[in-house]
Write a structure and sequence with these properties.
Number of domains of chain B: 2
Distance between the termini of chain B: 30 Å
Oligomer: heterodimer
Number of strands of chain A: 9
Order of helices and strands of chain A: EHHHEHHHEHEHEEEHEE
Number of strands of chain B: 14
Number of helices of chain A: 9
Strand order of the largest sheet of chain B: 2-1-9-7-5-6
Number of domains of chain A: 1
CATH class of the largest domain in chain B: Alpha Beta
Distance between the termini of chain A: 23 Å
Structural class of chain A: alpha/beta
Shape of chain B: globular
CATH topology of chain A: Peroxisomal Thiolase, Chain A, domain 1
Largest interface: A-B, 59 and 66 residues
Strand content of chain A: 15-25%
Order of helices and strands of chain B: EEHEEHEHHEHEHEEEHHEHEHHEE
CATH class of chain A: Alpha Beta
CATH superfamily of the largest domain in chain B: Thiolase/Chalcone synthase
Chain lengths: 227, 374
């Protein structure tokens, strides 16, 4: 069993109705020159990281299925005169790099993950297996236009950050991974779900501090909160 | 064989490389080594938009680019991966770590051009991996990593962690990057891909890179083999999106930890060496400062930069060189070099017992890995 303790988290989602104004509000907190060039994902990652207690040696798992979708659309739209700026911004893991470069914050270990339905469980599995004292998972997407219509990008803009540590002091909760699942009985409680939550749903689960257990092909995850 | 116990705090075991293979613009691992030793280049002047014209730039493609679905790399990769088809890969005790910078970016380019939904299944990283998993009969335990040109080195790092701590019995690292107009036009727009052919570490007036197709796989386990993974290091400067911190702190950060190792081991260095001036100078001077006796080579003047796959492609080529008894020098480049330890000519790996493998990426990302063979 691998267990890590929740020390901090942040979950932000732009509403469909007022997303532009909400994003503009987050942008005003950043230096104007840099903020103008940042993607929605970069701005939200920057906001989610403010106050997060990570250091140079915290392992960071940056987790996104589609990454900088608006920059991808803009770069593709710039042909036959390809834009260097949009090319640069579209490269995975642009969102977290924008936030870290803004603060000139070097880190030793950055693992950017991509992936589909299993991406949340893959990120949590790597976080639980990491032997460094603390791990920060940063996940998110930005809503695109025509790529979203074709299911090749997200239709929502959200970011969440989850700071996990090995030591238990002042923990807000815990994340446990137990392997393997095949012989284990399904827990008879209301918190068990059959399927791994999506990145988007997990942001809401964090925000409401929901208890949850779910199985994957590799093992069972259990998210618990104290108090 | 059952999965090893998952014991928290377990003392990490040694980790070894077993099955391995690669593909480049020059052929498979054996053929690539032969042609590197013969000082051949896979790079050819190719229109930057490939089949759609544009300025000529040095590309090393395994097949011509086309707007097709499945993509041009599909048959090539399926043939390459046949030895790994089916069980046990993708089981919890046999996880797969997939790495790439590009994944389905050529399909995304076609999707952007034609808005044809038939391109969608291959236009995302997860779409490509799901298609490959389905075709190869792999299980669901695959981790998909993408950190530009250090992607494969991160996959090796994570796979080794799982093997060393007993979380995996064996782990498969698989990387692939095939070049299309999205990437070649992007690098061209950044003005680091142009009509000049790359000359890694050359102290010249202009620098440039070439781009090449590449794929590789490695199997890691705790069972003994002639190739043992030593420690790896990573560092992300977060100084600038593309430029390195000018004093070279990022390069030093992943080299300095080997100071103790250099007292007990004799190693050569397989550098990143794309052909750009600034990064080539910083890398070679940092290697020379930290390990003045270690010869430094780059093979990207011949193969082009295989992007997110370069760490695994070049690691496989390093093992090929060690087994064949001759290490290709810095092919397709020439003096003057930025540092005296850049080796133009081939040399004997038997004079050393280890190789230090380096790769770098946008965002000032740096990675290093020591591989013991002596």
């Amino acid at each position: 069993m691998d267990e890590r303790y929740i020390k901090n988290f942040r979950s932000i989602e732009l509403t469909r109705e007022n997303g532009e104004a909400e994003l503009a509000g987050f942008r005003t907190k950043l230096p104007p020159r840099q903020a103008r060039r940042m993607s929605p994902l970069g701005v939200l990652v920057s906001e989610a990281l403010s106050g997060m207690p990570f250091t140079r040696d915290t392992a960071i798992l940056y987790t996104t299925t589609f990454t900088e979708s608006l920059a991808l659309e803009a770069f593709l739209g710039s042909f036959p005169y390809p834009s260097p700026t949009y090319f640069q911004t579209s490269i995975h893991p642009g969102g977290i790099e924008q936030a870290l470069i803004l603060n000139q914050h070097p880190v030793t270990a950055l693992y950017p993950l991509a992936g589909g339905a299993g991406i949340l469980s893959h990120a949590l599995r790597l976080a639980c297996a990491d032997d460094r004292p603390d791990v920060l998972i940063v996940a998110g997407e930005e809503a695109a236009t025509w790529l979203a219509d074709l299911d090749a990008a997200s239709s929502r803009t959200f970011v969440w950050a989850l700071f996990l540590a090995i030591e238990t002091d002042r923990a807000m909760g815990s994340l446990t991974f137990t392997s393997p699942p095949s012989t284990a009985a399904k827990p008879a409680n209301a918190t068990f779900v059959q399927k791994s939550p999506s990145l988007h749903d997990f942001g809401r689960i964090l925000k409401t501090r929901q208890k949850l257990d779910w199985d994957t092909a590799a093992g069972r995850f259990s998210l618990k909160w104290t108090g | 064989m059952s999965a090893p116990p998952h014991i928290a705090g377990i003392r990490p075991a040694d980790c070894f490389i077993h099955e391995r293979a690669c593909l480049t613009g020059l052929g498979d691992g054996r053929e690539t080594w032969n042609r590197l030793i013969a000082n051949e280049s896979a790079l050819q002047a190719t229109p930057v938009f490939c089949s759609e014209g544009g300025d000529p730039v040095p590309l090393a493609l395994r097949q011509p680019f086309s707007h097709s679905t499945p993509p041009r790399w599909w048959d090539d990769l399926l043939r390459f991966l046949q030895p790994l088809a089916g069980e046990p890969w993708g089981r919890p005790d046999h996880p797969i770590f997939v790495a790439s910078s590009n994944y389905g970016i050529d399909a995304l380019y076609s999707l952007g051009k034609h808005r044809d939904p038939r391109f969608v299944p291959f236009a995302t990283p997860h779409g490509c991996v799901e298609k490959l998993s389905e075709a190869l009969g792999w299980g669901a335990n695959h981790f998909i990593l993408s950190h530009a040109c250090v992607s494969a080195q991160l996959a090796i790092d994570q796979a080794a962690r799982f093997v060393k701590t007993g979380r995996a019995e064996r782990a498969l690292i698989f990387s692939f990057d095939y070049v299309g107009p999205f990437v070649s036009a992007g690098f061209h727009a950044l003005k680091i891909l142009n009509e000049s052919f790359p000359a890694p570490y050359r102290d010249g007036e202009t620098g440039s890179i070439g781009l090449g197709d590449g794929a590789a796989y490695l199997v890691l386990s705790r069972d003994d083999s002639p190739f043992r993974l030593g420690p790896g290091n990573t560092y992300n400067e977060m100084f600038h999106f593309t430029a390195n911190e000018p004093s070279g702190t990022g390069f030093d950060a992943v080299l300095a930890p080997y100071a103790d190792k250099s007292r007990n081991h004799r190693f050569w260095v397989k550098g990143h060496g794309t052909g750009t001036l600034e990064a080539g100078k910083l890398e070679s001077t940092s290697v020379n400062k930290n390990f003045p006796d270690a010869p430094l080579v780059s093979w990207k003047g011949s193969l082009g930069h295989t992007l997110g796959s370069c760490a695994s492609v070049e690691l496989v080529l390093a093992t090929e060189a060690i087994e064949r008894g001759k290490v290709p020098g810095t092919v397709c480049s020439q003096e003057p070099f930025f540092a005296p330890n850049v080796r133009r000519e081939s040399f004997f790996p038997s004079d050393f017992d280890s190789v230090l493998l380096l790769s770098n990426a946008f965002g000032g990302a740096h990675a290093s890995l020591l591989l013991h063979y002596g």
